[in-house]
Amino acid sequence: MSKKVLVLGEVRDGELRNVSFEAIAAAKEISSGGEVVAVLCGEGLNEAGKALIHFGADRVVLAEHSLLSTYSTDGYVQALLQVIDQEKPDGLVLGHTALGKDLSPRLAARLKSGLISDVTSLEQAGENVVFTRPIYSGKAFEKKVITDGLVFVTIRPNNIPPLEIDESRSGDVAALAVDVKDLRTVVKDVVRKASTGVDLSEAKIIVAGGRGVKSEDGFKPLQELADVLGAAVGASRGACDADYCDYSLQIGQTGKVVTPDLYIACGISGAIQHLAGMSNSKVIVAINKDPEASIFSVADYGIVGDLFEVVPLLTEEFKNV
Ligand code: FAD
C-alpha cells in the first residue's frame, strides 16, 4: 500500500547535509509509490527546498520561524508537530545525526509512536519494509518491521545511497508559518573550532590516528595525507586521551560512528570500543607496526610497518594519481 512519508532535511551553514538526500531515498522505498514530502526548518531555505525536489522529494514544506534558524529541541519539536498535524504522514524519516538522535525520541514520545533508530539498510518484503540496524556496538545486525502505526526511522549517514540528481524534476515548495514559543534554550552564538572543512560523520574518506602517532605533531603527516585525498582526520580515544588531538575527532563507541568508503587507521590497535565506531566502513586499511594488532582482523588491507614511513609514502603516491 502506498504511503505518505515525511523527511526532515538538515541544513548546516546554508548547505544541505547529504543525509537529507539519503533520507529521501529511504522515504521513497518506504512510501512504495506514495508521496515523499520533505520538511526544512528555518528561514530563506527556498533554494535548499528546490534541491530536495531534484533529489526525489515530491513536495517541500518550509517550516518558517526566526527561532528555527538554529536548532533547538523545543523549537523543532513544536514545528514538526505542526507539520505532522497538517500532513498526517504514514512515515517519518530523519538522519541518525546529532540532531536526529536528539529530536527523534522526543518526537516519538509526543506522537506516541515507536521508532527504529540507526537504520543502515532497508528492503521491501511483501507488505512491509524490513529495516536493518546494528546492535551490540556493531557486532550483530537485527532486522525489524513496523506493522502498525507511524513508520518512524532514523537512518545512519553514508549507508543508504541517495537517488540520482534530476534537475528537471519540479514540485511544490511551500512555506508554512509555524508557531514557535516558550523555548527553554535559545542559541545566542555559535563559536566554531578551526577545522579542515571535511565533516567527519559525512566524510567519504577518513584518515584516523591512534596513540601510535605519539604526539600532536604526529598528526601532521596524517593531515597531509587527508588533504591529498580530500579526507577528514579522525582519532581513537587513545589519541584524544593523550591530548594529541581534540575529542571532537574521536571515533568509536563513545565518539562518532562513521561509515566512509575508505578508512585508513594509523597506529590504532583496534580495541572493541574503537571498532564499534568504524567497522562498517566499506574499505578499511590498517597501518600498524604490530602484526598481531586486532585492527588487522577487520582490515581489508593491512600494512605492517611504521606509520611515519608508510603515511608519507602514501601521500606521495596519491599526489601522482
Ligand atoms: P593503543 O591501544 O595504545 O594502540 C596504539 C597502536 O599503535 C598499537 O597497536 C601499536 O602497535 C601502534 N603503533 C605504535 N607506534 C606505531 C608506529 N610508529 N607505526 C605504526 N603503528 C604504531 N576508544 C576509541 O577509540 N573510541 C571510543 O569511542 C572508545 N570508547 C570507550 C568507552 C569505554 C567505556 C572504554 C572503557 C574504552 C573506550 N575506548 C574507546 C578506549 C579503547 O578501549 C582503547 O583504549 C583505545 O581505542 C586505544 O586507542 P589506540 O588504539 O589509539 O591506542
UniProtKB/TrEMBL annotation:
Gene3D superfamilies (alphabetical): HUPs, TPP-binding domain
Keywords from the UniProt entry: Electron transport, FAD, Flavoprotein, Transport
CDD domains found in the cross-reference section: ETF_alpha (cd01715)
All residue ranges annotated as the Electron transfer flavoprotein alpha/beta-subunit N-terminal domain in the record: 5-195
Electron transport listed as a keyword: yes
Family: Belongs to the ETF alpha-subunit/FixB family.
Protein known as: Electron transfer flavoprotein subunit alpha/FixB family protein
